[in-house]
Design goal:
By secondary structure, the protein is mainly β. The chain has one domain. It is about 10% helix and about 35% strand. The two termini are about 30 Å apart.
Length: about 190
């Protein structure tokens, strides 16, 4: 019977991570929680080769679920607005000029500073990076989310009935093309 040597006996802490999106500047500092999304392979059937039972076969592509991120909303809501501007820029709910301004980098933040989009296909996508750190808080794994864009920006609740100050949080969900996993040497 073969024996295996476990490379590390430490458990992964859920506190040791950093997440960044290249086209968001104010958002990155306030990330509180992120889920590493599901991956699934749809099941194909044997197409009737066996007349008694359908035999499940592995599918031919991978489905990636949305990435969901909780973040504290900064005073003045600049980080929330960055995502709002991205979503309205690519979906142009009021007029076509919104999309043209987004593509040309003319969309500004709440302080009038241009939100400089990175150069990519139609300036729709951003690139996300999740760095997983060791128990010593050294980077050990890099997960890249390729060609991501926001699909949902959750509600913000303001409530005067609270007796303690519970700072405002929001949730944003992104779709992406695929993810890449790279080991970072420690």
């Amino acid at each position: 019977m073969p024996t295996y040597d476990v490379a590390t006996r430490n458990f992964q802490s859920p506190l040791n991570f950093e997440f960044r999106v290249d086209r968001l500047t104010d958002f990155n500092y306030f990330v509180q929680r992120i889920n590493l999304p599901d991956l699934s392979i749809p099941v194909a059937s044997n197409g009737g080769v066996n007349p008694f039972v359908r035999i499940p076969l592995p599918g031919d592509h991978v489905d990636f679920s949305e990435i969901s991120i909780d973040f504290k909303v900064s005073e003045g809501m600049n980080n929330w607005y960055e995502i709002y501007a991205w979503m309205t820029g690519i979906s142009f709910p009021e007029n076509y000029q919104q999309y043209a301004d987004w593509q040309d980098g003319k969309t500004t933040n709440l302080n009038g500073v241009p939100l400089v989009p990175p150069i990519n296909q139609h300036n729709v996508y951003g690139q996300g990076t999740l760095i997983i750190n060791s128990s010593n808080n050294n980077p050990i794994l890099k997960i890249s989310f390729v060609d991501m864009h926001p699909v949902s920006l959750g509600q913000i609740v303001f409530d005067t009935r609270e007796t303690d100050v519970l700072y405002v949080t929001a949730t944003v969900s992104f779709k992406y093309d695929h993810l890449k996993v790279e080991k970072i040497s420690e």
